[in-house]
Every structure is written in C-alpha cells, then in structure tokens.
Amino acid sequence: MSKTKKHWAAPALLAALGMMLPLAVGAQQLKELSLNSVPPDLVQAQPAGEQRTASVDLGEEIQNSEQAAAGQARPASLAPAQRAAQAARRQTAGAGEVRRVARLGGAGVERAVFQREPVRVQLSVGKERLITLPAPAALNLPTDMDQVARIETIGTTTYVTALVPFTPIRIVAELIDTGQLVPFDFVASPGDKLPELEVSVLDPQAGAAAASDDAKKDEAPSADMVQLTRHAARQLYAPRRLAWATPGVNQVAVATDPVPRLIRGLNADMVPLGQWKSGPLYVTAVRITNRSSLPIEIPLEQVRGRWVAATAQHGRIGAAGSDTDTTAVYLVCDRSFESCLQ
C-alpha cells in the first residue's frame, strides 16, 4: 500500500472508533423500568365496568360483577368433593415430600369386614382400584364427584380412579338384595397402584338372630309352678344361709293388708307376706293364723279367686295360742295376687 493510502486509512479508523465510543458508554448506563416510565399512549386503558376475571380452579367460583364492583368477597359454597380436593391441596402445598401409604402385596387382595365403622378406601391418584362387594350395590355419590374421581360399577365390582388428591369423602353403598347400607371413606393421594379391596359385610338378620340366641342363652329359664312354690317356702321357712335365690325368680311387691275372706268359712287371720314372679307365673305366700280354740284343717278348695295352684305348708294347724297355730298357703296365678283375687 502506498504511503498516501496508509494516511487515509488511519483517520477513517479513528472516525469509526469515535462513533462507536458513545454507544459503548451508553450501554453501561442502566435504568430501572416501571409502569410509570411507560408513555401514556402505550398503556391500554381497561373499559369502564369491565372486571378482570381470574382463572378458575377446582373448588373456586367466579364472583359476579356486582360483588366485585362493590368490593365484597365471600367464601364460595363448595360441594363435598370440591372441598375435599381443595383441602388436600392445602395439606400438600409447600411440602417437600408426600407421605405414601405402605405398599401392599402386588398380586395380593386386601380384605375388610364391615361391622359398624366406615370402610376406609385408600386411592392412588391416576391409578384404578377395584372394590368388590358381596352383592350388587347402588352408590350414593356427591353431585360433583366426577370432578375428583371416575367411578364405574359393574355387577359386584366398583372401579375407582382418583383424578386429584382429596381428603376423605363419605360414599354410601346400598346392597340391592338386602338394602343394607355400607359407608365408605374414600381418600386419594399420590402413590403406587393398590390391590383389589374385597369388602365383606355381616348379615343384619343373621346378626340379630345370633344376638337373640345369645340373649336367650344368657337369660335364665323360667321356673314352673312347683319350683316357684318351693322358692317361696324356702324364703319363709329355711334358715337364712339356705334361703338361696332361684335363677329366673324375682320378688315383686304385694300389698300386706289382711284378706279376711280369702278362704271361705275359715276362722283365721290371713295376711299376704310376699310375692315372687318367674316368666308368666306369680306365687304369693299368705300367712294363716288360727283364731279358734280348736285345731282346724286348711280347706284349699274354698280359696277365693282364680288360681292355677294352691299349696299349704301344713294341712292342719293347732288351736289359737299354740306353737302350731300358724302356717302358710302358696297361691300360684298367671297374674298378680290382686288381679287373681277378684
């Protein structure tokens, strides 16, 4: 290159560098931006009366324009399944790790027996689980259940797939053949696929029959009229240590007023002493005390009233004032003493 050309190139290079220097300096000057620095003509004004609508998530409701304009905010009325899903999201929000249900046997079957407590059904989100009942059943589901789970019933088997995690939701199955109600508590969380759940139920009629049989076994057998009479005699004449109770026999109240005409034609004082009951039978012990100066026979055929049986402790008693002037008569009836006396 000639000397002339070299002299021309140097000024040109300096000129180019001079033009780039201001740009480099300007690139180092940073300015914070905000909406206040945006020119007014670039800001798009929102039309009057138009409200900003947020995205709707499960369990949320859009407030109407009147409430938003007035600045009113009220909790949305959520359906049961929506509330359960929302509660599950709150529990897992911010958690670094989800506690998983212990893994069950892969090919095994989980079994449960419904007695009174609801059957808890654990679900894994996105993984179908089978629930088998002993008979076809109709499910009582919340109206919004399809938003959190997909449930199908074919015969005795119900196929359940949780779409999102949710806290326990009560679902009641009604067995079609017997009408028995079986409550379930469905709960869903992330986890592995769970095995089939077989749910057995106790037949309520069989359970009632078994309970009735147990009650009959526990209940003491009723005493017959002979046993009932012997019990009354033992309470009056046996020493206290031998006056034991008879199973199935209970003492009941009776009026102890004198009954002067209980035995027709008998000159004696007659006073009820006690009454006992077993099953449908009653026995009443009546004290008979002679008032005459002569011994007398106890004429049981002259006893007034409608009695099933009548028995005297002694058939003959001594004169009044003697050691043998008193005995007892035991009257058996299918009603109380006062009722049978009339």
DSSP strand content: 25-35%
Mean pLDDT over the residues: 77
Largest sheet: 5 strands, mixed
Name the helix and strand elements from N-terminus to C-terminus, one letter apiece.
HHHEEEEEEEEEHHEEEEEEEH
Global geometry: rod-shaped
Question: Keywords for this structure?
Answer:
342 residues, alpha+beta, 5-stranded antiparallel beta sheet, 6 helices, disordered N terminus
Explain what the structure shows:
This protein has helices at 3-27, 65-70, 80-92, 204-218, 225-237, 337-341, and strands spanning 110-114, 119-124, 128-132, 137-140, 149-154, 157-162, 166-175, 181-189, 197-201, 250-252, 268-278, 281-290, 296-297, 309-312, 316-317, 326-333. It is α+β, with helices and mostly antiparallel strands and 342 residues long. Among the domains are: 110-206, Immunoglobulin-like (Sandwich); 225-341, no CATH class. The strands form four sheets. It has a five-stranded mixed beta sheet with strand order 1-9-3-6-5, with no helix packed on it. It has a five-stranded antiparallel beta sheet with strand order 10-11-12-16-14, covered by helices on one side. A four-stranded mixed beta sheet has the order 2-8-7-4. Mean pLDDT is 77; it is low at 2-6, 21-38, 41-75 and 94-106.
